[in-house]
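Title: Comparing notes on inverse folding

I've been comparing how different people in this forum approach sequence design from structure. To keep things fair, I'm posting one structure and asking everyone to reply with a full sequence. Here's the target:
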């Protein structure tokens, strides 16, 4: 699992974004925000919508398709080109889904997305995930 800091509201509101995959062939993307005490919960679908992803992905995939693609791309890119503070963690996790989308076609190697609130079952790993903000971002 890749956990990275995500600037979700300009100029200074960050959250911790977790990205991994599941499914028999790894064809389902899992992207969630890691809850951090003192930082409000984040709707990643709303964050995606503010970036007007339909300009890139179009709107022919149905409601939420472009936002789902943007969310997957954000996690996928964060793993491929990690920025300062990004961590790779291995351990059991739980996703409390806000939304599940079948994409109708493969995007970034995925056919499906689960997005929501993600927690790591191990307390120490959860602390590491929460610390990607390094105490300097709120």
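Reply #1:
Here's my take.
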């Amino acid at each position: 699992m890749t956990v990275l800091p995500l600037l979700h509201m300009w100029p200074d509101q960050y959250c911790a974004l977790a990205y991994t995959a599941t499914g028999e062939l790894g064809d389902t993307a899992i992207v969630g925000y890691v809850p951090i005490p003192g930082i409000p919960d984040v709707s990643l679908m709303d964050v995606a919508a503010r970036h007007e992803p339909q300009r890139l992905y179009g709107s022919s995939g149905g409601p939420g398709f472009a936002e789902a693609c943007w969310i997957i791309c954000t996690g996928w890119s964060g793993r491929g080109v990690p920025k300062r503070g990004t961590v790779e963690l291995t351990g059991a996790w739980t996703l409390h889904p806000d939304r599940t989308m079948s994409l109708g076609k493969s995007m970034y190697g995925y056919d499906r997305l689960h997005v929501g609130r993600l927690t790591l079952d191990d307390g120490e790993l959860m602390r590491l995930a929460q610390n990607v903000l390094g105490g300097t971002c709120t």
